[in-house]
Amino acid sequence: MNNRNHEGSRHGGPPVVSCENVSFSYLDSGRPALGEISLEVRAGEYVGVVGPNGGGKSTLLRLMNGLLRADSGDVRVAGFDPAAEPFEVRKRVGMLFQNPENGLVAPFVEDDIAFGLENVGVSREEMRERVRKAVRAVGLDGYEQREPHTLSGGEKQRVALAGLLALDPEVLLLDEPTSMLDAAGRRGVLERLEALRGARTVVHVTHHLDELLDADRVLVLGAGRLVADVSPERLVSDPDLLRDNRLVLPTALRLAAELGLGPAKLRTPEDLAEAIVEKSGARAR
Best label site of 31, 202, 228, 283, fewest CB within 10 Å? Predict the structure, then answer.
C-alpha cells in the first residue's frame, strides 16, 4: 500500500478488528480474492470500504465474521479468531448481507426481528421493547404483523436491519445495507447508523460514496489489495484514486468539484445550490 494514502485512525486503544497479512482464494479462482491485507479498526470507529466489483470487499467482511477462513495471515475480532471461535465472535458482531431474503425466517415481521433475541435468551419484556425501537428506527411502524413474503425488497432489507439493530452488537458489518432501498429508505437507515456513531464499531461496504462522507476513514480495495486508507475528504478529492479504482462520485459531489467548491459534504442538489449561492455571495463581497 502506498504510504501517502494511509492516514491512520483518530481513535485510541487496541483494535477491535484486525487483519495481519491476510490472504484468501476461492476454489478454482485464477487470482486471490484478498492478498496480504493488513488493517485495524478501533472501538467506536466508522470505517467505510469501497472498490470495484471483485475487489474483495464482501470477502473481507466474511473473514471478519468467520464465514470464511483465511488461507494465511491472522484475523482477530475482540481478540478472537472468527473462524476458530465463531460463537464468541458472533456474540459481539452483527452482519447485514446484500440479500435480505436469506435472513427472513419467521411468519411475521415482529417475530423475525425478535428471532435473534430469542436465541440469546433475552427476556420477553425486554424483547418487546427492543423490537419496538428497532421497528421505529427503520420506519416500519404498522408492519409488525405483516408477512415478510408480502414485502418489497427494500422493506425486507429494513426488516433484516431491524433484527440486527435489536441485537445491539458491539461491531456491525454492513455489506451494501442500502442496496435495495429507495432514497427515503436509504436516508432513514443512514440516519440510524449515524445515531450509533461512537457507541458501536461499524465497517460499512458500499458503492455509494456519499454514504461515507461522515466516516472516520475509508478503505479502498482493488484486485484483492488494500490500495488506500484515507479520510472521506481525501477520497472524494483525489481524481487519480477515484479513476484507478473505478469509483464514481455522486452527482452533487462531482458538480461541486467541477465548480471548484472543494470536497464539501454535499449530499443533495439542494446542498449544492446553497453552496453555489454562498460562494457567489462571497465573491460579490
Answer: 283
What is the structure's pLDDT at 3? 42
Distances (CA, A) of 220 to 42, 246, 276: 18, 11, 30
Q: Write down all domains in the chain, each with its CATH number in brackets.
A: 3-232 (3.40.50.300)
Which residues make Cβ contacts (< 8 Å) with residue 243, sequence separation at least 6? Answer: none
pLDDT at 4 > cutoff 50: no
Distance in angstroms (rounded) separating the CA atoms of residues 111 and 182: 24
**Do 147 and 187 form a contact (C-beta atoms < 8 A)?**
no
Answer whether residue 16 shows pLDDT above 70.
Answer: yes
- Structure confidence by residue, pLDDT tens digits, 97-142: 877 777 788 999 999 999 988 878 889 999 999 999 999 888 899 9
Helix (H, G, I), strand (E, B) or coil at 200: strand
Q: How far apart are CA 245 and CA 50, in angstroms?
A: 9
Amino acid identity of residue 10, one-letter, is: R
pTM value is 0.84
C-alpha cell at 167: 441485537
47 touches 215 (CB < 8 A): yes
Percent above pLDDT 70 for the chain? 89
What does R_g of the chain's alpha carbons equal in angstroms? 20
Q: What percent of the chain has pLDDT over 90?
A: 48
> How far is 168 from 234, CA to CA, in rounded Å?
31
Using an 8 Å Cβ cutoff, are 203 and 174 in contact?
yes
Q: Please answer whether residues 148 and 70 qualify as being in contact, where contact means their C-beta atoms are separated by less than 8 angstroms.
A: no
Cell numbers for 122:
433475552
Reference 50, options 181, 178, 232, 172; nearest CA is 232
Contact 82, 65 (CB under 8 A): yes
- d(CA 152, CA 192) in angstroms, rounded, equals 20
